Structure to design on (196 residues):
């Protein structure tokens, strides 16, 4: 099972009212030190077995450009997750360092 | 500058009409081999300098539980991005392996 995680975010400079609302909400709850909040989309696509990885990358790039992102105001990035990782569900509240 | 990327996804089993619509759209465009599509949120929070990393992790976990995710139907994960990485904007269509 191959899984792709597509990240679609607004381009820098594009107004993000949803992000502003979240920032306002966090401040109202008492959190300090927040400079900016931007809200984007995370699209997880699970593919059937037996698809060539290189072919898949091209296909996903094409999907992003044609349907998943609006290239005028959004930018995208994606990562392919291997079988083992895809099988492991992300724990609630788990942390990942990068 | 510290940046946090929060991933909010629907729990497995929770119906995702938006994901179904995206899957249908991709199939209409002629893409094959798609098993499932789930749509979640990607929330990028930029923090002001000088916040302790450990403290920040606790704070973000708290933010997720209280505002960013609905713990009944959603699960969350987050990662902290270091200054250097945060300064580098993600290129349009860039690929990341994991």
């Amino acid at each position: 099972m191959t899984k792709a995680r597509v990240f679609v975010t607004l381009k820098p400079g594009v107004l993000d009212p949803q992000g502003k609302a979240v920032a306002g909400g966090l401040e109202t709850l008492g959190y300090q030190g927040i400079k900016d909040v931007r809200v984007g989309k995370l699209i997880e696509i699970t593919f059937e077995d037996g698809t060539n990885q290189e072919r898949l990358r091209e296909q996903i790039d094409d999907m992003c450009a044609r349907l998943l992102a609006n290239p005028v105001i959004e930018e995208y990035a994606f990562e392919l997750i291997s079988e083992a990782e895809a099988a492991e569900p992300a724990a609630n509240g788990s942390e990942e360092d990068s």
Strands of chain A lie at 2-10, 34-47, 74-81, 94-97. Chain A touches chain B through 58 residues (CB under 8 Å).
